[in-house]
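thread: overnight batch results

M.L. [08:02]
morning all. the overnight job finished for the chain we discussed friday. pasting input first so we're all looking at the same thing
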Amino acid sequence: MSDDLYFFPILARAFEEPDALSALEEAFRRIREMGDLPQYRRGFLQFERFMEEVAQSSCASEKATEALVQAIWEGRDSPPSRFVLTKNGAAPRQFDAGPPRGFARLDNINPGFHSLSLDTGRVLWEGELTESHLLWVVAFPGEPLQMAADTGETGNRPTLKEDLLDGEVVLRVFPGLEGGSMEVEMRTFVSDEEKA
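M.L. [08:03]
and the structure it wrote out:
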């Protein structure tokens, strides 16, 4: 079998075990470990896509889906966090939402049709960003541009806020002088205390 589908026989063997739940936990651990090896990286991305489809399936219960997602990512240093932004179908820009809160910022966003996806190919958001989203003088005419002390970053007044994946990912767009910024926050991996 192709290295791209290395996870299928591992899952199949787990389902043959008397204690399928324990066997699946072990299978997920093995799939993750193998996915860290270069020859299985593409296969691991296929596994992630496969699990996303399982999670979206109408036959998967909410508790079962949560258990599967937790089992897949348990023990990893970080959640899947590579984002891809394309504008008008042009060359993509990639960025990470790194620790500790799964937060990323991409600057110099210009007007156009944008698509935000995970590096697995799953599209999270698509839409038109206009000058009213990205340029301060258009978004807030007559108001002075607020600058954060010593950083040069604009104030925290978004022109667009979208909750994605049932609120587990939050997309915000902020206007600037010559272009805007896009922030992506992965709330899934934020503790309950931080969410409050």
